[in-house]
Design a protein that fits this description.
Layout (H helix, E strand, L loop, with lengths): L2 E7 L5 H15 L6 E7 L11 H9 L16 H4 L2 E4 L2 H8 L13 E3 L15 H4 L2 H22 L3
Parallel strand pairs: 1-2, 1-3, 3-4
Helix pairs in contact: 1-6
The chain binds 4-nitrophenyl phosphate.
Length: 160
């Protein structure tokens, strides 16, 4: 079985592409590229087709993490059938993703959750949006820590 992971934020240029790139890097380091696929998407359409934000690119460059070929796209209803893990960077993203659900959809809490649920000890509900406050360093810290927890969770789920 293969796990498909989708990170979702608002613009798909700052937080979720950072999480996509960091998580893919960790998956590659763990030698699990055949078992775990990674993507990201946004709930807003302003940046469709754009590469990650300069601040996200800079911090990924600093850590030697590739973001090659990544382009913003919108989250769609089809993503519920394509991804077993849909990880929303904040509560507002989660609310907007839930709006895509249809009556007949059954989505488990293990499929759709917020990124900070991975880091309960932090006492922080949302990954703050660096598009507005410019704090890409803090976001990277949270993203790196949360992605490591997520990788362990998926390894356990897939019995790897
Ligand atoms: P992101 O940040 O959701 O982390 O990609 C944002 C990017 C763009 C905008 C808002 C948030 N925007 O309003 O264009």
């Amino acid at each position: 079985m293969k796990a498909h992971v989708l990170f979702v934020c608002l613009g798909n240029i700052c937080r979720s592409p950072m999480a996509e790139a960091v998580f893919r890097h960790l998956v590659k380091e763990a030698g699990l590229e055949q078992q775990i696929a990674v993507d990201s998407a946004g709930t807003g359409d302003w940046h469709i087709g754009h590469p990650p934000h300069e601040g996200t690119r800079r911090i990924l460059d600093e850590h030697g993490i590739s973001y090659e070929g990544m382009k913003a796209r919108l989250v769609t209803h089809d993503d519920f059938s394509g991804f077993e893990y849909i990880v929303c960077m904040d509560g507002s993203n989660l609310k907007n993703v839930r709006k895509l659900l249809k009556k007949e959809d059954h989505v488990a809490s293990s499929q759709l959750f917020t990124f900070m649920e991975l880091l309960p000890g932090r006492g922080v509900a949302d990954v703050p949006d660096p598009y507005f406050d410019g704090n890409f360093t803090y976001v990277y810290e949270l993203v790196d820590e949360g992605c490591r927890v997520l990788l362990e969770r998926i390894k356990k789920d897939l019995q790897l």
